[in-house]
User: Fold this.
Amino acid sequence: MVSIEWETQNVDMPSIDRQLLERWISDVAASHERIVGPLVYIFCDDERIIEVNRQFLQHDYYTDIITFDYSRGKLISGDMFISLDTVESNSRLVGAEYADELHRVIIHGVLHLCGINDKGPGEREIMEQNENEALDMLRRLNGKI
Assistant:
């Protein structure tokens, strides 16, 4: 049984199919030889995410997701703060549907927990490839492919 909590701070819960997303997250983790442990998604606004960024990471900028990794071995676990404000502005910026961008950010955190980074040379491209493969998995699960 996958243990995923979906919470909000300062925003309404986005319209998501929790059951579908939980199966998808579990499948993506399995494709990276990982097992899903306790995960908490906290959807918030820009003000909350910058507060978290400043308090815990000493970064003074907005971001779409901050992932706190509590994984041990093959068991992934963590808290993920997602700014719905930044997801929305990023979706407009890249010309993507809001739901698609939200799904990309949701799985981005899981991929970090699976050990994929995106800050070093060439890592961003690897992360994007993994995000795209995961989004294809979601489309198949959702019957859109």
